[in-house]
Design goal:
Distance between the termini: 38 Å
Shape: globular
Number of strands: 0
Number of domains: 1
Bound molecules: Muraymycin D2
Radius of gyration: 20 Å
Largest sheet: none
């Protein structure tokens, strides 16, 4: 909103014209969210420490994690503060803002309740898995129905690398879109098991969607690159840029050895926001490439659980897959940095779909 106000001053000072541009406001959004996180973190970490809002470490996990007992958690509140303040300041108010803010706030609230039960009420299970899943669907439903009925959107599915194949999902789009939002939310949550592991790929994926949203919302670029044009989607780039800034600010403190964990209040809304950005920019399937780390983590859990239930045998030493690498002897920061390297490569592969068709 500040951006729009500053732009209105261009009548008096032509230099204020610069606030019209999504690119410029995106840069400001990254810096604002980064600074909010960097400067609020010491206070919030201190507060979490004084209130003893610390992680309880499971005794059946990798032994290297036992020393993390008591690390302040719910640091996701920090990312959300940076993200929300920055988005409200620099993103143009409109439907994309309303939708993405709804997702961040509702999934943030679900994560908050889960963390509150686990950390403050000392109930190790937190929200029951089924109830958590039901609440996630409930939070995603209004968005999905809105997209389904909104004339600005269509229910065609764009396939990366294949220009001519865009099947219309019809009513199945509702199920598909629910899967994208809720699936992304849970996949980021599963990935959040090593210092810096979830926030790294979140930052690279947000970077990919900042580009896709910008292109999708720009009629000429969309036409030139032959991607679906979505009116107003460009503003989403400002949100994605704020996510990059908030993520970097959080990573400053979550880097090994972490001074704070994000908790479900961070992982659930971050994943859901990425899923929603994929839907709003009409690049849903690219998420499987850009967010490939999240996909691999979630698939490793499915494979492990299925194999364990059917044959009482484990495929990995421990799922999600990051624990497997820890248990075969890789140091924690090595696993994290290697996963980041893969995330950067995947982000480049995702961006290449703009040209390679
Ligand atoms: C949450 N949470 C971390 C922290 C973070 C179905 C099953 C695979 C589910 C899975 C699970 O519960 N996953 C979701 C993962 C936890 O981190 C907290 O949770 C928040 C995210 N929701 O922000 O607050 C622990 O992760 C470590 N951590 C860090 N640095 C960070 O920056 O080191 C987190 C953030 C923290 C800390 O140790 O305590 C978690 O892993 O619990 N379950 C599992 O992941 C468990 N896997 C498992 O049971 N595998 C089985 C199969 C058959 C299901 C198997 O392979 O045999 C493992 N997790 C743990 N111990 N802690 C294994 C046992």
């Amino acid at each position: 909103m500040l951006g729009i106000y500053l732009y209105s001053l261009h009548k008096y000072f032509s230099a204020f014209n610069v606030f019209k541009y999504i690119t410029f406001r995106s840069i400001l959004a990254t810096i604002t969210a980064l600074l909010v996180c960097l400067f609020c973190a010491p206070l919030i970490i201190l507060w979490l420490r004084t209130k003893q809002i610390g992680q309880v470490i499971r005794d059946d996990g990798p032994p290297d994690h036992f020393s993390k007992e008591g690390t302040p958690t719910m640091g996701g509140l920090l990312i959300l503060a940076g993200l929300i303040i920055s988005t409200l300041l620099w993103m143009k108010p409109g439907l994309p803002m309303l939708i993405i803010m709804w997702v961040v706030l509702t999934f943030g609230a679900i994560g908050f309740v889960d963390d509150y039960l686990k950390v403050i009420k000392r109930n190790p299970k937190g929200l029951k898995a089924r109830l958590k899943f039901f609440l996630q669907i409930l939070a995603a439903l209004p968005v999905v129905f809105f997209l389904y009925y909104c004339p600005e959107f269509n229910t065609r599915l764009v396939f990366p690398f294949i220009k001519w194949f865009r099947p219309d999902l019809g009513a199945f789009y509702i199920v598909f879109a629910l899967l994208v939002i809720v699936g992304a939310s849970n996949a980021v949550n599963l990935t959040d098991g090593l210092d810096g592991l979830a926030i790294g790929p979140t930052i690279t994926t947000a970077g990919v969607y900042a580009v896709f949203a910008y292109v999708a919302g720009h009629s000429q670029f969309a036409h030139y690159l032959d991607v679906e044009y979505v009116k107003g989607a460009g503003e989403l780039a400002v949100f994605c840029a704020a996510l990059i800034g908030g993520g970097l600010g959080f990573l400053w403190y979550n880097a090994y050895p972490a001074q704070v964990f994000m908790g479900d209040v961070g992982s659930l809304p971050l994943g859901a926001a990425i899923g929603t950005a994929a839907l709003l920019s009409k690049q849903e399937l690219v998420l499987a490439i850009a967010g490939g780390i999240f996909v691999v983590e979630a698939v490793s859990v499915m494979v492990q659980v299925t194999s364990y239930k059917w044959k009482q045998k484990r495929v990995f030493r421990m799922a999600p897959i990051h624990h497997h690498f820890e248990l075969i002897g890789w140091a924690e920061p090595k696993v994290t940095v290697r996963f980041w390297i893969i995330s950067i490569l995947l982000a480049l592969a995702a961006l290449s779909t703009l040209k390679l068709r």
